[in-house]
Amino acid sequence: MPKTKIAGIGMYVPDHVVSNQDLIKYMDTTDAWIQERTGIKERRYAHRTEETTTTMGVEAAKIAIERAGITPQDIDFIIFATLSPDYYFPGCGVLVQRAMKMKEIGALDVRNQCSGFVYALSTGDQFIRSGMYKNILVIGSEKHSFGLDFSTRGRNISVIFGDGAGAVVLQPTENDNSGILSTHLHSDGESAEILAMYNPGTHANHWLPQKLADFNEGEMGDMFMSHAMIDKAQNFPFMDGQSVFKKAVVKIPEVIMEALNQNGYKPSDLKILIPHQANLRISQYIQQTLALRDDQVYNNIQRYGNTTAASIPLALCEAWQEGKIKEGDLVCLASFGSGFTWASALLKW
Ligand code: COA
Question: N or C: which terminal CB in the chain sees fewer CB atoms within 10 Å?
Fold first, then answer.
């Protein structure tokens, strides 16, 4: 059975740099608070109308495809991970198929938030190993800036997130010394509401026309297409930051060890760990827990913030571009996020 290798990798971030100082114009915060709690100095925001989650994904994909030495017409499956799709439906995968003039191939959207890229990578890995596809495009892309609460009410979240995209091309390899060794996916829905965007969603019928609302026993009350939803900020992400932090610092080291143990490695064998760029303090905590050296953990959250499904491919791409990942190196990707979901992938580059 073939293994799966990353044959090409690309990234895209918008030109517009937003510093912590820039955010002070909109909310009660400080550069010191943001840097001390999160490590973030600046992030990128996409152009309001000209850039979308899909267009950023396409830019990253073009580079990944070129680096893989193929063309968009060679791609036989698309997997697109995002929590900020261009449309509620259809997903971004089909928009990539259209934008890149690809064949009428399958296109799958993955909705696993910060774990989205590792879930997507794992899905692609199974299709390659089974022999079903030969060139899979996996994209993680987010346009968070479209929907954050930039008032003081939303400051605990809005200072953290940024926009960007990363992409990889997956291909089969018969080389024993390269490719994805294993992937590990987990979830625990008990805490689903701790990090979530509640609306628009079907759970409370907020979007029903009035007649249908009456038909449904008139339970809509003040929530009918109303400002109540907006007044309660349910159209913005909600996060209980401390609960997320506490769970992340346990689950990320656990899922890294799961991958290392399954393949007979120890943390000291890692050339580099690419953790989800949630918060620099979380990365530092993981580094300490696993007794890793500074050069074994890659962080770029300082410049991009948390880009959710894009964060791991963005960090992986930059680490590779900076020459920190070479052929045969042991690389671990590890994520944690809304759901909760957490995941890892161990690979030989
Ligand atoms: N600027 C200034 N003050 C802020 C602020 C901001 N941007 N955001 C929140 N505060 C205030 C709070 O209102 C609170 O004030 P109070 O003490 O007067 O009530 C105080 O700072 C502490 O808030 P708290 O939420 O307890 O801070 P914290 O130390 O937990 O840090 C996070 C907040 C979000 C940085 C931290 O919890 C975190 O990083 N959690 C993990 C988040 C994460 O990784 N999410 C992505 C998961 S994929």
Answer: N
Indicate if 186 and 297 belong to the same structural domain: yes
CA–centroid distance, residue 159 to ligand 1 (Å): 10
Do 9 and 115 fall into the same domain? Answer: yes
Low-confidence ranges of the chain (pLDDT < 70): 204-228
Residue 203 carries which DSSP code?
G
Structural domain boundaries, residue 119: 3-173
Mutate which of 21, 25, 37, 152 for ligand 1 pocket (most atoms within 8 A of beta carbon): 37
Q: For residue 240, how far is its CA from the centre of ligand 1 (angstroms)?
A: 9
Supply the residues annotated as catalytic.
Answer: 114, 276, 306
Based on the number of CB atoms within 10 Å of its own CB, is 255 exposed (0-12), middle (13-18) or buried (19 or more)? buried
pLDDT on residue 206: 57
Share of the chain above pLDDT 70, in %: 93
Are 83 and 111 spatial neighbours (Cβ–Cβ below 8 Å)?
yes
Residues 271 and 167 in one domain: no
Ligand 1 atom having least distance to the Cα of 113: 48
Residues whose beta carbon lies within 6 Å of some atom of ligand 1: 29, 33-34, 37-38, 114, 155-156, 159, 239, 241-242, 244-245, 278-279, 282, 306, 337
Q: Using CB atoms within 10 A of its CB, is residue 124 exposed (0-12), middle (13-18) or buried (19+)?
A: buried
Distance of CA 207 to the CA centre of its chain: 28
Residue nearest to atom 26 of ligand 1 (CA): 242
Q: Which atom of ligand 1 is nearest to the CA of 308?
A: 48
Same domain flag for 149 and 8: yes
Domain total of the chain: 3
Backbone angles phi, psi at 22, to 5 degrees: -60, -35
Give pLDDT tens digits for 4-49: 999 999 999 999 999 999 999 999 999 999 999 999 999 999 999 9
Nearest CA to ligand 1 atom 42: 241
The verdict on pTM exceeding 0.90 is yes
Residue closest to 268 by CA, chosen among 257, 279, 284, 252: 257
Q: Which two tokens stand for residue 50?
A: 């000209």
